[in-house]
Specification:
Layout lengths: L23 H8 L9 H6 L9 H5 L9 H8 L4 H4 L26 H4 L17 H35 L5 E2 L6 E2 L13 H42 L3 H12 L7 H36 L25 H43 L5 H18 L3 H32 L19 H11 L6 H6 L7 H27 L7 H9 L4 H32 L7 H25 L3 H29 L5 H27 L3
Length: 648
């Protein structure tokens, strides 16, 4: 699927491959680009100097790992600092401090040190940025000119000294050894290099060279040891290939998998299979686009494995989803995409509420679904809005991973058991199976799209890899595993229940098992705990985005802590209102998939790839990119209208 650039052809480069047209000044600027995510306290204090949403990448990391590090949870969930926003407009007076005022007169009691003129120095508020690049380059050029002038003056002084020695016609002078006296008559035959001044100069030059070489060796040794130590520490904090594959698969195989049998119910055997495989292939390709945008080059990432240092990246690497949008479409495009991302997170809260209500209603049918959701909303207020216990959040992240494995295993095992005990029909009439249904395609596309939503966390996975050049191979393996699991769940669920399958396969399993089935009751309670844990974790990145918008008007960090709880409580009850108003799991999943996931996971990666690397892409890549953009737009608009109009 990946194509080389027509002009450049296949090539390889290292992870530190420089940019095209790099200069010494741009190297220093590029070194300030973060290859990872914001986790340290100092970075959190300074993050709000970036445009909104500066906290997105930090907050979304809480969803990127199945088992959170307790030491990092506090940084992931920390509210933005109010004081950092005051640094939004630095003085930025340039590289040097202003010209010192000239003192025309001084009083008789003025100290001597005060009478001296001030010396210009580097400004303490100077920052390396795009605006200051020209100032920095001008300063570097001036320093180079001064160095060249100094060397020229030194050479002129040396030549002048030799000329003076040659022009001396009278008198004698002693050699450096003191035992040889040369008369003026024999001076013309004496080499000027034998003069005492020249010997002293050469001796000092040799001594300076030895000292410089010694200092360079010491600095290179210390820097190499420091770099090796830092690289070892960095590698220890990074994730291996298998860990990244597991993390990515855990993100994709979420609550949306519960509705996959409903995809086959809506579109039939053929339609459901085609929609699932087709959307998996599309999002697999767009994941490639995101990885190459993060790498700063449209060529396959595996070529940048360090085997060849002759190639240069076309653009500087970036480290987050909003940065890709900002590089491709500017600040306004970044704001629009971020709004879609936060809307998707908010919609997920409502989906979790509906899932909770459905499973609790299956266990306690005497209580309505709306009342169940209201009770759960009150219970979730405490851990979501008032607690930030790192260990609690770490355990909650592990629950979702265990639940995913349990659901896939339970559905497939139940289907196999029924196949070997009941037969091909699994107790379902053949007329309850549909081969193909075009009327249910929009709903099916939306559910499958929601199941494959996870591109916003791709930068976090990419930045956490020990060997980023293996990113595309990791994506290949991940999507192979996820597609297999999705087809197993969808086919097994539809085989067991046919058109009678519920919006969530676990509800159908619970109904068929009846009362007193301990295994199915445990699975249902596990899904309830999973929805609660995912609700709590999803709340944090969403709340951070709203808190960031309030940093300009809050007076202190204490006020921010209070506002943090208020924001989360408001979001909880807004999500509850949406869930009560639209209590259908498949309807909400389909809408979120068609509106948000198609934009974030299909349209945006393809359009950003065309915008960033369009002139260097081959014609086939351009046509395929525009096909994804136009096709994704058509599916999002037409599918949303058809889903809303359908009688669900």
């Amino acid at each position: 699927m990946s194509n080389d650039i027509e002009a450049g052809g296949p090539a390889a480069a290292s992870e530190s491959t420089p940019l095209v047209g790099d200069s010494p000044s741009s190297d220093q600027l590029n070194s300030s680009i973060s290859s990872g995510s914001v986790t340290s306290t100092d970075d959190i204090k300074e993050e709000l100097e970036k445009p909104w949403p500066a906290t997105f990448e930090r907050g979304i990391q809480i969803l990127a790992s199945p088992m959170l590090d307790v030491r990092k949870v506090a940084d992931y969930t920390k509210s933005p600092s109010v004081r950092a926003r005051y640094k939004k407009h630095p003085l930025n007076r340039g590289y040097d401090t202003p010209e010192p005022p000239t003192m025309t007169s001084s009083s008789p009691g003025t100290p001597a040190w005060l009478k001296k003129s001030l010396v210009r120095m580097k400004s303490l508020d100077y920052r390396f940025s795009d605006d200051n690049t020209a100032i920095y380059n001008k300063k570097q050029q001036q320093m180079q000119r001064n160095q060249q002038q100094f060397q020229a003056k030194k050479l002129d002084a040396h030549a002048y000294r030799q000329k003076i020695l040659q022009e001396r016609k009278q008198g004698g002078f002693a050699s450096s050894a003191g035992d040889l006296v040369i008369d003026s008559e024999d001076l013309q035959d004496v080499d000027v290099t034998k003069s005492p001044g020249y010997r002293r100069e050469k001796h000092m030059d040799k001594q300076r060279k030895r000292e410089n070489m010694k200092s360079r060796r010491e600095s290179s040794t210390s820097s190499s040891s420091a770099s090796s130590t830092s690289s070892e520490a960095e590698d220890s904090s990074k994730s291996s290939f298998s860990q990244c594959t597991f993390n990515m698969a855990n993100i994709l195989m979420g609550v949306g998998m519960l509705g996959l049998p409903n995809v086959f119910k809506s579109a039939g055997w053929i339609g459901g299979t085609c929609v699932t495989i087709g959307f998996c292939l599309v999002t697999w390709k767009t994941s490639y686009y995101l990885g190459r945008a993060l790498n700063g080059d449209p060529r396959p990432v595996h070529l940048f494995d360090g085997s060849d240092l002759t190639i240069k990246r076309m653009r500087k690497p970036v480290s987050s989803f909003p940065e890709i949008a900002r590089e491709a479409f500017g600040d306004n495009g970044c704001i629009c995409l971020s709004a879609v991302l936060y809307f998707e997170l908010f919609s997920c809260l409502s989906i979790f509420f509906v899932s909770l209500g459905d499973h609790l209603h299956a266990l306690f049918p005497n209580i309505s679904q709306a009342k169940h959701m209201t009770i759960v909303a009150g219970i979730l207020t405490l851990p979501s809005a008032l607690l930030r216990t790192p260990k609690l959040l770490s355990y909650l992240s592990m629950v979702g991973t265990f639940a995913t494995v349990a659901v896939v295993s339970s559905v497939v095992a139940s289907a196999l058991y029924m196949f070997f005990t009941v037969g091909d029909s699994a107790g379902v009439e053949k007329e309850d199976y549909a081969l193909y249904s075009s009327s249910g395609l929009p709903l099916a596309m939306g559910i499958v799209a929601y199941c494959f939503s996870g591109h916003a966390i791709v930068p976090s996975i990419y930045n956490s890899m020990q060997r980023p050049h293996e990113f595309e191979r990791m994506i290949d393996l991940t999507y192979g595993v996820v597609l297999s699991a999705c087809l197993f769940v969808a086919v097994s669920g539809y085989y067991m229940f046919g058109d009678d399958v519920d919006d969530q396969i676990t509800i159908s399993l619970e109904k068929r098992a009846g009362d007193g089935n301990l295994a199915m009751d445990c699975l249902t309670w596990l899904m309830i705990l999973t929805a609660c844990s995912k609700f709590t974790l999803t709340m944090f990145p969403l709340a951070l985005g709203f808190e960031e918008m309030l940093t300009n008007i809050l007076p202190s960090d204490l006020a921010m802590e209070l506002v943090d709880s208020v924001v989360k409580i408001v979001l909880i009850f807004l999500a509850l209102a949406v869930a009560i108003w639209f209590p259908s799991f498949s309807f909400l999943c389909s809408l979120v998939g068609l509106i948000c996931t198609v934009i974030v996971s299909v349209i945006f990666p393809a359009l950003a790839n065309l915008r960033l690397f369009g002139p260097s892409l081959p014609l086939s890549e351009k046509l395929f990119g525009w096909l994804l953009v136009v096709g994704g737009t058509f599916v999002a608009v037409v599918g949303t209208i058809a889903t809303v109009d359908a009688d669900i």
